[in-house]
Amino acid sequence: MPDLFMLVLPLIIIEFILKIIAFIDLYRRESTSLPKWLWALIILFINTIGPILYLVLGKQRRQIT
Amino acid sequence: MKLVMIIKKECLETFRSHRWLWLPVFFLLLGLMQPLTSYFLSDILEQFGGLPEGAVIEIPAPSAGEVYGATLGQFTQLGTIVLVLAFMGSISEERRSGEVKMLLLRPVSYASYWFGKFIVSSTVMTVSFLLGIGIALFYIQLLFEPILMSELLGSLAMYWLWMLFIIAVTTTFSTLIKRQTVVAVCSLIFVFGLQMFASLFTSLASWTPGALPNLAVAMTTEEIVLPIASTILSIALIAWMSILYMKKTDWLY
C-alpha cells in the first residue's frame, strides 16, 4: 500500500500553485469586482474553488465604445 | 491567414484570463480526487462519518473500471459546469464590450472568427481533459489495477467528442446571446437536458449526442456509430447556424 502522504502530495502542490498565482494576480490588479480584502479571504480560505472563482469573476469588466 | 491571426489573438486572451491555468488544474484535481476517495472510502467514513462506536461496514473494493466510470461521472457533472463557465464569455463578452467591432473592421470573415474561437476553446479543453484523465489513470493503476489501453481508447474518444459538443453549444449560445449569465444557464440546461433525456429514455434516445457519456462510462463498442455521427453532425449544424446568424442579423450592434 502506497504512503498516504505521497499520494496526497500532488494535490497539495497544485492547490498551493493555484493560490500563489491568484494572489499574484490580485496584487497586480488595480481594481477588482469585489473589495480586495474579500477576495484575499476567499482565495485563502476556500480551497480550490476560491482561487478559481477569483480568476473567473475577479476581473472588473471593461467597456470600449 | 485570417484564421491563424484569430487563433493567435485568442490564445493570448486565454493566457491573460488564466484559463490555461485553472481549467487544466481543475481537471487535474477532479481526476486525482476520485480514485483517492474510492480507495480510502472506508477510512473516510470511519474518520468523519459520525458512525456509532463499533459499527462495522464492509465496502467491497471497486474495480478499476468502476473507478474510471466514476471519474468520468465527475467530469460529466462538475467538468461540464466548469467548461461552460470558462467559455460562456468567449464571444458574448467581446460583443458586449465592443471589442468585436474593432476586430471585424479588418477583413476577417465571421466564419474564421467563430472557428478561431471554437478551435482555441477546444484545445484548452483537450489539454485539460487529457491531463485530468491521465492523472486519474495513473492513480487507478497505482491503487487498483491497470486498465487495458485497447478498451480505453474508444471510451476516451467518445467522451472527448461529447466535450467538444459542449464547447460547440456554449460557443453557439455565446454568439446568440449577449449576457454571459444567460449564456451559461442556456448551455447548461441544454447539455444536461440532452443527457437526462438520453438516460431516461435509453432505447428511444440511443442515437442522440446525450448518449455518448453513458456509452463512454460503460466502455462499450456496440451501437456507437449513430451517436457519434449525430454528434459530429450537430456540431457542424450549430456552427453553420451561428455563422449564418452572425451574417443575417445586425450582429455587431
What do these coordinates show?
- The complex is a heterodimer of chains A (65) and B (253).
- Helices cover 68% and strands 0% of the residues of chain A.
- Chain A is elongated, with a radius of gyration of 15 Å.
- Chain A has one domain (4-57).
- Chain A is mainly alpha-helical and 65 residues long.
- In chain A, helix 2 (36-45) runs antiparallel to helix 3 (49-57).
- Chain B has one domain.
- Chain B contains eleven helices and no strands.
- Chain B starts with a helix and ends in a 5-residue tail after the last helix.
- At the A-B interface, helix 1 and helix 3 of A face helix 2, helix 4 and helix 7 of B.
Q: Secondary-structure map with pairings?
A:
The complex is a heterodimer of chains A (65) and B (253).
Chain A: H1 4-28, H2 36-45, H3 49-57
Chain B: H1 2-16, H2 19-39, H3 41-48, H4 64-87, H5 92-97, H6 99-105, H7 110-143, H8 149-176, H9 180-200, H10 211-218, H11 225-248
Considering the chains and any ligands shown, give keywords for the structure:
heterodimer; A: mainly alpha; 3 helices; B: 253 residues; mainly alpha; 77% helix; elongated
**Structural classification of chain A:** mainly alpha
pLDDT < 50 stretches of chain A: none
The biggest chain-chain interface is: A-B, 23 and 24 residues
- The domain tally of chain B reads 1
Helix content of chain B: over 70%
- Quote the average pLDDT of chain B: 88
Summing up helix and strand content along with how strands pair, one would put the structural category of chain B as mainly alpha
Percent strand of chain A: under 5%
Q: What distance separates the N and C termini of chain A?
A: 61 Å
% residues in beta strands of chain B = under 5%
Q: What is the approximate shape of chain B?
A: elongated
Q: How many separate structural domains of chain A?
A: 1
Radius of gyration of chain A: 15 Å
Shape of chain A: elongated
